[in-house]
């Protein structure tokens, strides 16, 4: 059997270089594979987040203009009472509240709307987590499960005993002091000129 020729320095260096390149190639494949897997997972997570993401509801301000009194601004709570807010905005945008009276002031509540009118009743969101505190605007029950959005009232004091009897859907942010000065009688019923809806 013939003896193997000893490797020359040049050949040995070539073989070492080749082995080094092969090792680096395998390392690069592993790095690329890991990077691709990370990107894939990130993409899947991003898709899941995008699918499950719910944009917050739009925020609205209702500016209630009362003749000879001034403007009262109410922040509407679309998150807690979406049905009530949506119907209120719909009616206000149609001018349904224009010219109606602030017809009663009793038990710390200022009642607004047309007692003779009746918009399509809507399901009441009675368990929305809100409370009839001072400054809160609400729609009272018209039946066990519904409210009449043609009528609403603003609390001039805390009336938390009525929390399950009304749908709270906003809160006065400006002009509550104007309402506290009102005198409401059969001969003197302030009139709502217009309710403007402003998106924040």
Tell me what you see in this structure:
The protein contains 3 helices and 10 strands, in the order αββαβββββββαβ. It has 200 residues and is an alpha+beta fold. It folds into 2 domains: 8-53; 60-199, Cyclophilin-like (Cyclophilin), CATH 2.40.100. The protein has an 8-stranded antiparallel beta sheet. Strands 5-7 form a two-stranded antiparallel sheet. The longest helix has 44 residues, at 9-52.
Task: Give keywords.
8-stranded antiparallel beta sheet; Cyclophilin; single chain; alpha+beta; two-stranded antiparallel sheet; 28% strand; 200 residues; rod-shaped; 2 domains
- Say how many strands there are: 10
Terminal Cα span: 94 Å
Assign the structural class, choosing from mainly alpha, mainly beta, alpha/beta, alpha+beta, or little secondary structure.
alpha+beta
CATH hierarchy, class of the largest domain: Mainly Beta
CATH architectural category of the largest domain = Beta Barrel
Number of domains: 2
* Low-confidence segments: none
List SSEs in N-to-C order: HEEHEEEEEEEHE
């Amino acid at each position: 059997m013939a003896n193997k020729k000893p490797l020359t320095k040049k050949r040995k260096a070539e073989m070492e270089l080749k082995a080094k390149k092969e090792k680096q190639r395998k390392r690069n494949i592993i790095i690329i594979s890991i990077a691709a897997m990370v990107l894939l997972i990130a993409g899947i997570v991003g898709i899941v987040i995008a699918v499950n993401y719910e944009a917050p509801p739009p925020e609205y301000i209702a500016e209630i203009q009362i003749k000879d009194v001034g403007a009262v601004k109410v922040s509407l709570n679309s998150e807690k009472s979406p049905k009530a807010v949506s119907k209120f905005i719909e009616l206000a945008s149609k001018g349904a509240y224009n010219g109606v009276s602030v017809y009663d002031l009793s038990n710390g509540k200022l009642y607004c709307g047309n007692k003779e009118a009746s918009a399509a009743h809507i399901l009441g969101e009675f368990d929305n987590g809100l409370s009839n505190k001072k400054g809160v605007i609400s729609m009272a029950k018209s039946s066990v499960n519904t409210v009449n959005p043609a009528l609403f009232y603003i609390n001039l004091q805390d009336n938390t005993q009525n929390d399950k009897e009304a749908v709270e859907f906003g809160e006065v942010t400006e002009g509550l002091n104007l309402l506290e000065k009102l005198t409401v009688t059969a001969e003197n019923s302030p009139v709502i000129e217009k309710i403007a809806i402003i998106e924040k």
